[in-house]
């Protein structure tokens, strides 16, 4: 998470949405940088609102606008699936090296998924109060990071150049039509969130 106080902006880090590269590029210019532990770096909206926003308001009487990135749900799950195929995870409960992508997605849709498919939820991460689908001020799609960079360059008054970081291993992923439909049926809020970004 990055906070730019003068520009009244906080960038929240949704996992697997390119925020590690953005953090590396912008950290030297931020007023607050939270990069560790992961539980604080990837602070979901409800925790940010409960703790950080209240702290900002109490200290200064204002709260920063929030920015986040959301990824198309199947693409997001594919990134997690590939990321957990890394050789260093081989033999661990969260490894997907011996799991088909269909099986990974089916497991993800369960109420209590196995460790290899327990990757959280973009919809829960970004949910707003009182049932609002999104609790951030500015939400951008992962496949249009150019829009995010244009916005940030304008707000921060500086050019942004990033390098690819924390990238999942390359690989072709195919999800069967039946499993894709099952995912849409079991996790509609993930698709509603993504579709809400204009």
Question: What would your notes on this structure say?
Answer:
It is a single chain. The protein has a single domain (2-195), classed as Rossmann fold. The protein is 41% helix and 9% strand. The chain contains nine helices and five strands; from the N terminus they run ββαβααβαααβααα. The protein has a five-stranded mixed sheet, covered by helices on one side. A hairpin with a 4-residue loop joins strand 1 (2-4) and strand 2. The model has no long low-confidence stretch (mean pLDDT 93).
Attribute tags:
198 residues, alpha/beta, Rossmann fold, 41% helix
CATH topology name: Rossmann fold
Under CATH, the homologous superfamily reads P-loop containing nucleotide triphosphate hydrolases
Number of strands: 5
Number of domains: 1
Gross CATH architecture: 3-Layer(aba) Sandwich
Task: Tell me the structural class.
Answer: alpha/beta
- Output the CATH class name: Alpha Beta
- Roughly how many Å apart are the termini? 24 Å
Uncertain residue ranges: none
Please provide the ordered H/E string of secondary-structure elements. Answer: EEHEHHEHHHEHHH
- Tally of DSSP helical segments: 9
Rg result = 17 Å
Kindly report the spatial arrangement of strands forming the biggest sheet: 3-1-2-4-5
Average pLDDT rating: 93
**Which descriptor suits the 3D outline?**
globular
Helix content: 40-55%
Most strands sheet: 5 strands, mixed
Strand content: 5-15%
């Amino acid at each position: 998470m990055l906070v730019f106080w003068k520009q009244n902006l906080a960038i929240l880090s949704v996992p697997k949405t390119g925020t590690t590269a953005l953090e590396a590029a912008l950290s030297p210019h931020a007023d607050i940088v939270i990069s560790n532990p992961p539980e604080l770096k990837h602070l979901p909206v409800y925790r940010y609102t409960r703790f950080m926003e209240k702290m900002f308001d109490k200290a200064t009487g204002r709260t920063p606008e929030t920015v986040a990135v959301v990824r198309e749900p199947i693409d997001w799950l594919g990134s997690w699936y590939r990321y957990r195929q890394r050789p260093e995870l081989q033999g661990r409960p969260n490894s997907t090296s011996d799991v088909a992508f269909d099986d990974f997605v089916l497991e993800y849709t369960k109420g209590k998924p196995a460790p290899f498919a327990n990757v959280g939820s973009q919809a829960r991460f970004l949910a707003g109060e009182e049932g609002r689908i999104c609790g951030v001020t500015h939400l951008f799609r992962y496949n249009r990071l150019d829009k995010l960079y244009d916005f940030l360059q304008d707000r921060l008054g500086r050019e942004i150049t990033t390098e690819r970081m924390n990238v999942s291993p390359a690989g072709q992923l195919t999800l069967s039509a039946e499993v894709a439909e099952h995912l849409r049926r079991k996790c509609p809020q993930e698709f509603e969130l993504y579709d809400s970004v204009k």
